[in-house]
Amino acid sequence: MLSVAILAGGLATRLRPLTETIPKSLVEINGEPFLWHQLRFLRQNGVERVVMCVSYLGEQVRDSAGDGRAFGLHIDYSFDGDTLLGTAGALKRAQPLLGESFFVLYGDSYLPIDLRAVETAFRASGKTGLMTVYSNQGQWDTSNVEFTGGRIVAYDKKHRTERMRHIDYGLGVLNASALARVPAEKSWDLAALYQELLNAGELAAFEAPQRFYEIGSFSGIEELSSYLKQQSGQGPQSA
Questions:
Q1: Residue (of 132, 155, 137, 165) closest to 239 by Cα position
Q2: How far is residue 132's CA from residue 234's CA, in Å, rounded to a whole number?
Q3: Which of 97, 86, 28 lies closest to 55, judged by CA?
Q4: Phi-psi category of 83—alpha, beta or left, where left has phi over 0 and alpha has psi -120 to 50?
Q5: How far is the CA of 221 from the CAs of 10, 38, 65, 160, 228, in angstroms?
Q6: Phi, psi dihedrals of residue 6, rounded to the nearest 5°
Q7: Are β-strands 49-54 and 74-79 bridged in parallel, bridged antiparallel, or unpaired?
Q8: Which residues contact 209 (CB under 8 A, 6 or more apart)?
Q9: pLDDT per residue over 92-128, tens digit each?
Q10: Contact present, 50 and 43 (Cβ < 8 Å)
Q11: Between 58-65 and 34-44, two packed helices, what is the crossing angle to 10 degrees?
């Protein structure tokens, strides 16, 4: 299976004061750092290699997860450095560790989805990138994707339309060649990269059947905590 890049370098201002002394990925969920839940899910779904893209308090992330052996994984770390590089910029820096193609997900997202099915769809598409989408209908967050006929027609986080009923699910797949569009050592957002790929006809899509969970807000933390309690004892949490 493809390696996974986890984008965990954000400042997490919405969770302060909780994140004034710890990074968001280490926020406690049911007695353990969120990252541990995320890593176990990835291993249960066949992932073997993870690259943590970190910045703010990133040393704490490294100290918590280590080399990954405790989770049956191999984990590498890529630090932004003195300047925050943004989500796509962080991937650009981590490129030597990621391989020819890789999954990318956010460090605050718990996504109960079949990763193998997503990888299969990406390879079958022949595209440079793939975005997973969910029929959000404005329920969990503001919808930002117009999706019809199995393809993304429009994607924009800033200029939304009433035709946008889906949302960026938070999991993507990229070929390393997509990162050639990202300037080196500059702040660049993954959303901007997705838009460029869409405009170039190089962005495939996969519709997720189940809602996403996130810890970017206090309400999101409560929802994920409840979900994981319900799932405990039921084996690997795949879709």
A1: 132
A2: 25
A3: 86
A4: beta
A5: 17, 13, 20, 26, 11
A6: -110, 120
A7: parallel
A8: 113, 239
A9: 999 999 999 999 999 999 999 999 999 999 999 999 9
A10: no
A11: 50
- Which tokens is 17 given? 């004061």
Contact between 84 and 9 under an 8 Å Cβ cutoff? The reply is yes
**Sign (positive/negative) of CA torsion 84, 85, 87, 93?**
negative
Given the structure tokens 């030597």, which residue do they identify? 96
| Closest CA relative to residue 141, chosen from 128, 118, 160 | 160
Query: Nearest Cα to 110, choosing from 225, 214, 6?
Result: 214
DSSP letters along the chain, please?
Answer: --EEEEEE----GGGTTTTSSS-GGG-EETTEEHHHHHHHHHHHTT--EEEEEE-TTHHHHHHHHTTSGGGT-EEEEEE--SS--HHHHHHHHHHHHH-SEEEEEETTEE----HHHHHHHHHHHT-SEEEEEE--TTSSS---EEEETTEEEEE-SSS--TT--BEEEEEEEEEGGGGGGSPTTS---HHHHHHHHHHTT-EEEEE-SS--EE-SSHHHHHHHHHHHHHHTTS-----
| Residue 16 region by backbone torsions, left for phi larger than 0, else alpha for psi between -120 and 50, else beta | beta
| φ and ψ of 105, to 5 deg | -140, 165
Q: What is the pTM of this model?
A: 0.91
Q: What is the pLDDT of residues 158-211, one digit of tens each?
A: 888 888 999 999 999 999 999 999 988 788 999 999 999 999 999 999 999 999
